[in-house]
């Protein structure tokens, strides 16, 4: 092995720390760590820095401002805490440290872990499914209350029920709501209420307190007793921000005992308004029905009168009078039409009589004769004019006019017009056409055109 270092294998301090950070962050998921806070500090940035230690070791930790704003307690040195954190390395100093995502006091943290474990277990079994939740009755006749008989929660619930609906029956199943005996007592009370079968709704309630004070309502036995209840269960445990396993198992969760009483009881004032409104609706419906009956009676009375023999006779008499009137009107109209037709035919007959038509025909014949003479004369005059024009045109283009000025037209022996000297060889005979008569000549000599 060579003692000379390969430059590619030499780490700078920055590269080494970066590689170590990647190994730490990749090798550890989010983990829970419990220990005591020491060297606590909070600079002006709002971030907090401290050392987490136990009896044998310590590690640096940091919790940034956006996470520590969610804390429900004030951390300080000497406080035992439970952290959920990421393992990393601060490269600038090479310090191994924890980046804290969540922090809680150690005692309460154990309870919260137990709470979360039980919640996930029961949720996986389907105990919290929405499909098994039942709708509360709109007008329960009796309410069973499982709570401490001396607690403020019971007084609040009873006060609201008396105000809203004093006619409702209330059965109280007294139990302890805190301590080791609370959970078995709550389970027994729920079972007793179901055996009695006198209640329409069961209200499980108590006032506020710490997580430890409310722990009886986070017991698995209580959750299963709620799930097995045949009567709908409303849970109202602690304040609005407190959640228990009983809240998830119940059919309905109310934020406070008073809110639960409001939820399960009808409002007397609303019921009175509904009764008054329904009474008015019934009155209007009855009046409308009576009006309908009156209209039906009147209609039946009219139909009865229409079917009465006297009414039918009167209708037939009226119909007969109407038909008689229509017949008379039809006869008069027909007589008028026949009279008008007779006058028209008489006028046409007079117009067609021979003694009346003969003068008209003679006059029309005379007019036609005069028209024919006039048209014939005009046609003859137009024809004569066209003929004279044609004659003048022929005289203008006729070769006879040229011959009259002393010219002649020569023809060869075949009768073809001669226009060149080559067409009449020497000693041949040619015919000359004059204005008056013809000459037959013999060619003595010819001279072509120069």
Give Rg in angstroms: 67 Å
> What name is given to the CATH topology of the largest domain?
Rossmann fold
> Judging by the overall fold, what is the CATH architecture of the largest domain?
3-Layer(aba) Sandwich
Q: Characterize the biggest β-sheet.
A: 5 strands, mixed, barrel
Number of helices: 12
Helix coverage percent of residues?
A: 40-55%
User: In what range is the share of β-strand residues?
Assistant: 15-25%
Q: Oligomeric state of the chains?
A: single chain
Distance between the termini: 133 Å
Structural class: alpha/beta
* Pattern of helices and strands: HEEEHEEHEHEHEHEHEHHHHHEEE
Written description of the protein model:
Residues 11-104 form the OB-fold nucleic acid binding domain. Residues 313-340 form a coiled coil. Heterooligomer composed of large and small subunits. The chain has 450 residues and is an alpha/beta fold. It has four domains: 10-112, OB fold (Dihydrolipoamide Acetyltransferase, E2P), CATH 2.40.50; 139-266, Rossmann fold; 278-328; 403-442, no CATH class. The protein contains twelve helices and 13 strands. A five-stranded mixed β-barrel has the order 1-2-3-5-4. A five-stranded parallel sheet has the order 7-6-8-9-10, sandwiched between helices. It has a three-stranded antiparallel sheet with strand order 11-12-13, with no helix packed on it. A hairpin with a 6-residue loop joins strand 1 (31-41) and strand 2 (48-53). The two termini are 133 Å apart.
């Amino acid at each position: 092995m060579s003692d000379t270092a390969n430059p590619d294998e030499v780490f700078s301090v920055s590269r080494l720390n970066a590689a170590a950070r990647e190994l730490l962050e990749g090798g550890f998921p989010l983990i829970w760590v419990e220990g005591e806070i020491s060297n606590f500090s909070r600079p002006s940035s709002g971030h907090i820095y401290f050392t987490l230690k136990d009896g044998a070791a310590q590690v640096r930790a940091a919790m940034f401002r956006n996470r520590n704003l969610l804390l429900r307690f004030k951390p300080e040195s000497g406080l035992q805490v439970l952290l959920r954190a990421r393992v990393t390395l601060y490269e600038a100093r090479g310090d191994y440290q924890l980046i804290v995502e969540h922090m809680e006091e150690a005692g309460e943290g154990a309870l919260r872990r137990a709470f979360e474990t039980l919640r996930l277990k029961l949720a996986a079994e389907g105990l919290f499914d929405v499909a098994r939740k039942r709708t509360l009755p709109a007008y329960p006749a009796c309410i069973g209350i499982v709570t401490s008989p001396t607690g403020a929660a019971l007084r609040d619930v009873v006060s609201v029920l008396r105000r809203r609906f004093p006619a409702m029956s209330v059965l109280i199943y007294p139990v302890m709501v805190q301590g080791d005996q609370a959970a078995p007592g709550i389970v027994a009370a729920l079972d007793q209420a179901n055996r009695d079968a006198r209640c329409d709704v069961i209200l499980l309630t108590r006032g506020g307190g710490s997580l430890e004070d409310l722990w009886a309502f986070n017991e698995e036995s209580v959750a299963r007793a709620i799930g097995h209840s045949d009567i709908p269960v409303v849970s109202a445990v602690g304040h609005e921000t407190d959640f228990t396993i009983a809240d998830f198992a119940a059919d309905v969760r109310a934020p406070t005992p008073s809110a639960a009483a409001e939820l399960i009881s009808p409002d007397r004032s609303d019921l009175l308004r509904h009764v008054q409104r329904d009474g008015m609706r019934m009155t209007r419906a009855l009046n409308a029905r009576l009006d309908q009956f009156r209209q039906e009676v009147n209609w039946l009375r009219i139909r009865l009168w229409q079917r009465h023999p006297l009414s039918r006779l009167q209708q037939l008499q009226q119909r007969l009078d109407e038909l008689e009137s229509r017949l008379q009107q039809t006869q008069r109209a027909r007589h008028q039409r026949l009279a008008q037709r007779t006058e028209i035919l008489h006028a046409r007959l007079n117009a067609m009589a021979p003694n009346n038509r003969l003068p008209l025909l003679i006059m029309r014949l005379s007019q036609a004769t005069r028209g024919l003479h006039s048209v014939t004369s005009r046609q003859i005059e137009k024809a004569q004019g066209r003929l004279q024009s044609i004659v003048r045109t022929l005289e203008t283009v006729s070769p006879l006019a040229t011959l009259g000025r002393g010219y002649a037209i020569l023809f060869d022996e075949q009768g073809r017009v001669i226009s060149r000297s080559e067409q009449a060889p020497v000693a041949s005979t040619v015919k000359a056409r004059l204005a008056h008569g013809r000459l037959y000549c013999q060619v003595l000599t010819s001279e072509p055109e120069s």
